[in-house]
Structure formats: structure tokens, C-alpha cells
């Protein structure tokens, strides 16, 4: 008998793509996608159930469908996606708690796969050259999506101790980019003039959206417990990424960078948190040896190739005319000087 899989966050791009791909596999009997709103995209052979993982009704979905595998894709990355930071926190943390409580009570539950993020390592000046899965952060995340992921992983570890019969796999994905995905990071590199932290050139890693789905499928189909970093090969410096995107840069002194992030949020051009500003200051690189040796996964795209595919799809690799870049830069500086408020 094949697997019966429940995928959370099925109405978003990655969750919906995963549900559709899993439903096509011969050793998967049924896929049930759940989310609070119906998907705008086709789920293929997968079924959709409108359900909120913050509500105990999710337990009924697990029992009525005899779910044996849960893939948790429901951690939201930005407040704009959720409708505010409070709602985002409820979905990410309270939703995960309710989902794991339902999984703990399920008699059919055999596997849990959790999509997490390398953001759990934080970003800071004392970071090692590479983070491996057994390392603790030197500068732990203090807010936003990164802190939510830390809390989610803590609840997952608790669930694993209470249900040792369930195979638990956690994938810490680097920043995901690709031709069809929109994130805070892709919005940042799509800005006509990109603010950077003066005197810093962060080391970045990316994973292609197709590779992220393939890695989650591998973890779902194969019984490989543990925590794994997932990223494309290589490292891209922030300055190199901006040049490859054909963008102009606007160096900002570090004390003013949080204000720039807040200004971009208020203007609706990018959804940036303080943790993302720290990432663009100090960067982060992870070791992916366990991904290859234990998970048995090899990404098709390197960090550079994943980023270039995103750039090509967005049509970003053409430099702005110098006069246009100068005009935008002057506008940003003026807005920053007035606290991000537009003039009447």
C-alpha cells in the first residue's frame, strides 16, 4: 500500500507544486493539501481540504483520511503574506503546535517532514565559515520568520521524543530563488537601486525552487531521519549578486539600514525584517555534506546557477541608465532623510 500524504500550505506556490508532484508518484496513493484559502493554481491529482492548522479540526483531517505522512510547508516567511506579524506568528508557531498535537494522537502517523530554513543559524560577526547541522547559532535570531523557525524546530524535536516510532526529517533550506517564486529576497534584488550596508559584503547561498521541491520529495519518499542543510553549491557575494542582476547599489551606513528596511515595507516594495537586514550585513554559509552523504540528494543548480535563473526570468540583467539610477538614488536618500514619508 502506498503513502497517504498531507501537505500544509498547499495554496502557496511551493506547497501546491509539492502536492501536485507527490500525487504523481507511483508509491503515493493519495495526497491531501490543506490551507486556509483555496489554491489559485492546479493541484493536479491531489485533493484539497480547506482547513486551518491552528484549529484542532486538523486532527479530524488526519484521522478521516488515514494520513501516514505529513509534510509541513505552512511556515509563512513574511508578514505581508499572512496579513500582519501577529497572524504570521499564530500560523507559524500556534499552527505548528496544533498540527503536531494532532500528529501525536494519530494512530496511522509514520513520517513527518518539516520545511525549515538556514535562518535558524542567525547572522552575525562571530559566525563560523560554515554552519553544520550540529552547530548552535552564535547570534541567535531575535525576531520574525527566523525566530519562528527556531521555535518550530523546537516543537518538532519535542514531538520526535514523544513519538519515536515516527520518522522525522527537518530540511533547513537556504534562500529559495527561481523563475516562478516571489520572496522578500527576490523582491530585494529586483529593486532598481539596491540598498546595501556600507563596508559589508555578505556571503550568500541559494537553492533553486525546483531543487527545494526535489529535496522535500526525497525526504518524503525515503525514510531518512535527521536534520539537513539544503543549498546549491558555492557562495555568491552580495556585490556579485547585485552586479549579475544589473542593479545599481546604494550603500547605507549600518545604523540607518533598519530604517531603510522599514521604509521599504511601508512603501510596499519589499517585505524586510531586521533579521533579513542582519543577513545582508553578515551573510551565512552552511555545510551540505550530510545532504549528499545521508539524505542522498544532489542539487541540479549551484548557488550561482539558481540566482542566474531567477535573474533571467525577471529580465533583471540589464543595467539601468545612469541618469535613472541617480534619480532613484536621490529619491531614496530624500525619503530616508524624512523618515520614509512621501511628500504631499
What would you call the structural class?
A: alpha/beta
Shape: globular
Number of helices: 13
Report the sheet with the most strands, covering strand number, pairing sense and barrel closure: 7 strands, parallel
CATH class membership of the domain at 3-181 and 206-234 and 285-300: Alpha Beta
Considering DSSP H and I runs of 4 or more, what fraction of the residues is helical? 40-55%
The CATH superfamily of the domain at 3-181 and 206-234 and 285-300 bears the name NAD(P)-binding Rossmann-like Domain
Give me the Rg, rounded.
20 Å
Spans of at least 5 consecutive residues with low confidence? none
- The beta-strand count equals 13
CATH architecture of the domain at 3-181 and 206-234 and 285-300: 3-Layer(aba) Sandwich
Strand residue content: 15-25%
Determine the CATH topology of the domain at 3-181 and 206-234 and 285-300: Rossmann fold
**Mean residue pLDDT:** 89
SSE series: EHEEHEHHEHEEHEEEHEEHEHHHHH
Question: Would you write up a description of this structure?
Answer:
The protein is of the alpha/beta class and 344 residues long. It has a domain of 224 residues: Rossmann fold. Helix content is 41%, strand content 18%. The protein contains 13 helices and 13 strands. The strands form 4 sheets. A 7-stranded parallel β-sheet has the order 3-2-1-4-5-6-11, sandwiched between helices. The protein has a two-stranded parallel sheet with strand order 7-10. Strands 8-13 form a two-stranded parallel sheet. β1, α1 and β2 form a beta-alpha-beta unit. α4 runs parallel beside α5. The chain is globular, with a radius of gyration of 20 Å. The N and C termini lie far apart (66 Å). The relative contact order is 0.13. The mean pLDDT is 89.
Amino acid at each position: 500500500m502506498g503513502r497517504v500524504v498531507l501537505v500544509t500550505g498547499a495554496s502557496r506556490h511551493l506547497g501546491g507544486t509539492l502536492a501536485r508532484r507527490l500525487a504523481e508518484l507511483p508509491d503515493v496513493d493519495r495526497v491531501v493539501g490543506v490551507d486556509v484559502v483555496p489554491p489559485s493554481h492546479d493541484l493536479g491529482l491531489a485533493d484539497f481540504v480547506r482547513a486551518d492548522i491552528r484549529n484542532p479540526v486538523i486532527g479530524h483531517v488526519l484521522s478521516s483520511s488515514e494520513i501516514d505522512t505529513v509534510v509541513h510547508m505552512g511556515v509563512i516567511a513574511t508578514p505581508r503574506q499572512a496579513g500582519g506579524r501577529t497572524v504570521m506568528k499564530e500560523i507559524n508557531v500556534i499552527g505548528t503546535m496544533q498540527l503536531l498535537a494532532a500528529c501525536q494522537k494519530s494512530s496511522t502517523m509514520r513520517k513527518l517532514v518539516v520545511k525549515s530554513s538556514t535562518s535558524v543559524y542567525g547572522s552575525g560577526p562571530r559566525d563560523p565559515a560554515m554552519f553544520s547541522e550540529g552547530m548552535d547559532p552564535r547570534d541567535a535570531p531575535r525576531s520574525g520568520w527566523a525566530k519562528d523557525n527556531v521555535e518550530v524546530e523546537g516543537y518538532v524535536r519535542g514531538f520526535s521524543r514523544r513519538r519515536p516510532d515516527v520518522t522525522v526529517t527537518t530540511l533547513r533550506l537556504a534562500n529559495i530563488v527561481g523563475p516562478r517564486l516571489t520572496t522578500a529576497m527576490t523582491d530585494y534584488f529586483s529593486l532598481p537601486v539596491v540598498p546595501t550596508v556600507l563596508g559589508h559584503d555578505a556571503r550568500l547561498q541559494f537553492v533553486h525552487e525546483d531543487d527545494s521541491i526535489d529535496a522535500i520529495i526525497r525526504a518524503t519518499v525515503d525514510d531518512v531521519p535527521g536534520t539537513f542543510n539544503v543549498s546549491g553549491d558555492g557562495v555568491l557575494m552580495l556585490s556579485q549578486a547585485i552586479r549579475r542582476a544589473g542593479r545599481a547599489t546604494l550603500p547605507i551606513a549600518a545604523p540607518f539600514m533598519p530604517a531603510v528596511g522599514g521604509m521599504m515595507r511601508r512603501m510596499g516594495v519589499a517585505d524586510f525584517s531586521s533579521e533579513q537586514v542582519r543577513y545582508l550585513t553578515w551573510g551565512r554559509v552552511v555545510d551540505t555534506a550530510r545532504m549528499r552523504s545521508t539524505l542522498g540528494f544532489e542539487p541540479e543548480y549551484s548557488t550561482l546557477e539558481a540566482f542566474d535563473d531567477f535573474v533571467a526570468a525577471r529580465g533583471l540583467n540589464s543595467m539601468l541608465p545612469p541618469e535613472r539610477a541617480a534619480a532613484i538614488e536621490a529619491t531614496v536618500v530624500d525619503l530616508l532623510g524624512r523618515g520614509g514619508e512621501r511628500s504631499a
